[in-house]
């Protein structure tokens, strides 16, 4: 399956702003994070199709995954 | 009571059924302290002043620099080098002489400085530009039980949330504070990401609206919620939050 991934903030260091990633069917958010070598598990907010998801959340073909870090500027 | 001049000044918002004269009076009787008179503090303080909030505190120890001017609309080119809060006070007084503007040209080097100022206001707005101060403000608000409204930005992303201490998730529940070095590294990275001025405008006005709705007790607010705005893709998301019972700041073990 293919999912679209958008990286934000700190996570832009781990890959492009937007990309299409091919994963095995039944993969979870956790596996996607490993794909990008993202080890952060606290300062991270993950949305799947703009709804909050957790690490164990299952992904399906065509999902859009947005990976945010907290922002602190003003 | 609202004077004839005030009734005219606020006419367009008094016309809204959910506000009315009663609501306008509530705004006049309310007070809030805004920490940070920069990119977020500019629109927040200007809109709350224009809306007729009775008393506004403004905290910032910084001076205006040329690099502020792409987003800090309180200031003009002639203000470079001047103390921010003094310039801001003049600007806000011109905008609305009915609002009492109180300024604090100081940094929050320790929590007592923050607490002593916060005590004098109904609520606190976090419009700062670094994580260290954000954690300190959150801690001071939780310890005093003051409602807190948080706005933050980085690159093309804005975030906003409201905190009702001990009732809803605090900033530390969502993003637990890490070691000092990590927190300053996060701030550094965030600074190097840059900020576009229109983004602080959007997030600043959202935060100002949150304070107005809270004061008037109308509509839906961002308590136990985090709003994420992605300017580049026009995406708004609101996620639900929960108070962390083990939070080192507001957790039940720390009451
Ligand atoms: Zn907390």
Strand order of the largest sheet of chain A: 2-1-5-3-4
For this structure, what is the CATH class of chain A? Alpha Beta
CATH class of chain B, named Alpha Beta
Terminal Cα span of chain B: 40 Å
Low-confidence stretches of chain A: none
CATH architectural designation of chain B: 3-Layer(aba) Sandwich
Major interchain interface with per-chain residue totals: A-B, 18 and 39 residues
Strand content of chain B: 15-25%
Total number of domains of chain B: 1
Radius of gyration of chain A: 11 Å
Explain what this protein looks like in three dimensions.
The complex is a heterodimer of chains A (74) and B (255). Chain A has 74 residues and is mostly beta strands. Chain A has one domain (2-68): Beta-grasp domain (Ubiquitin-like (UB roll), Roll), CATH 3.10.20. Chain A has 1 helix and 5 strands, in the order ββαβββ. Chain A has one helix spanning 29-35, and strands spanning 2-7, 18-22, 45-48, 51-53, 64-68. A 5-stranded mixed beta sheet of chain A has the order 2-1-5-3-4, with no helix packed on it. In chain A, a hairpin with a 2-residue loop joins strand 3 (45-48) and strand 4 (51-53). Chain A is globular and about 40 Å long. Chain A starts with a strand and ends in a 6-residue tail after the last strand. By secondary structure, chain B is α/β, with parallel strands linked by helices. Chain B has one domain (4-254): 3-Layer(aba) Sandwich (Rossmann fold). Chain B is 40% helix and 18% strand. Chain B has helices at 4-9, 11-14, 20-28, 41-51, 84-95, 111-118, 131-144, 171-174, 180-193, 197-216, and strands spanning 31-35, 55-59, 100-104, 123-126, 148-154, 157-163, 225-230, 235-240. Chain B has an 8-stranded mixed beta sheet, sandwiched between helices. The longest helix of chain B is centred in the last third of the chain and has 20 residues, at 197-216. The radius of gyration of chain B is 18 Å and the shape is globular. The interface between A and B is medium-sized, with 18 and 39 residues. Zinc ion (ZN) binds next to helix 8 of chain B.
């Amino acid at each position: 399956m293919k999912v679209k991934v958008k990286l934000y903030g700190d996570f832009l260091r781990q890959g492009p702003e937007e990309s299409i990633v091919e994963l095995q069917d039944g993969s979870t958010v956790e596996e996607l994070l490993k794909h990008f070598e993202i080890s952060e598990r606290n300062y991270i907010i993950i949305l799947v199709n703009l709804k909050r998801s957790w690490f164990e959340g299952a992904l399906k073909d065509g999902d859009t995954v947005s990976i945010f870090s907290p922002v602190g500027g003003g | 009571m609202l004077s004839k001049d005030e009734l005219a000044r606020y006419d367009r918002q008094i016309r809204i059924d959910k506000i009315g004269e009663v609501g306008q009076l509530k705004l006049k009787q309310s007070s809030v302290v805004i920490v940070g008179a920069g990119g977020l503090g500019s629109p927040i303080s200007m809109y709350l002043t224009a809306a007729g909030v009775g008393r506004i505190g403004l905290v910032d120890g910084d001076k205006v620099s040329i690099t502020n001017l792409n987003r800090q609309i309180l200031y003009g080119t002639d203000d470079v080098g001047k103390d921010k809060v003094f310039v801001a006070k003049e600007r806000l007084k011109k905008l609305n002489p009915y609002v009492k503007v109180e300024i604090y040209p100081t940094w929050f080097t320790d929590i007592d400085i923050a607490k002593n100022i916060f005590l004098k206001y109904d609520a606190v707005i976090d419009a700062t530009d670094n994580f260290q101060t954000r954690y300190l403000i959150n801690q001071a608000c939780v310890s005093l039980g003051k409602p807190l409204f948080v706005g933050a930005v980085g690159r093309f992303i804005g975030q906003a949330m409201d905190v009702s201490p001990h009732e809803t998730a605090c900033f530390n529940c969502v993003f637990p504070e890490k070691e000092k070095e990590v927190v300053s590294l996060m701030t550094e990275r965030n600074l190097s990401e840059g900020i576009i001025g229109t983004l602080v405008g959007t997030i600043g006005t959202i935060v100002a609206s949150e304070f107005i709705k809270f004061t008037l007790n109308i509509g839906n607010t961002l308590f136990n919620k985090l709003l994420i705005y992605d300017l580049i893709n026009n995406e708004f998301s609101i996620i639900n939050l929960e108070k962390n019972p083990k939070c080192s700041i507001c957790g039940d073990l720390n009451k």
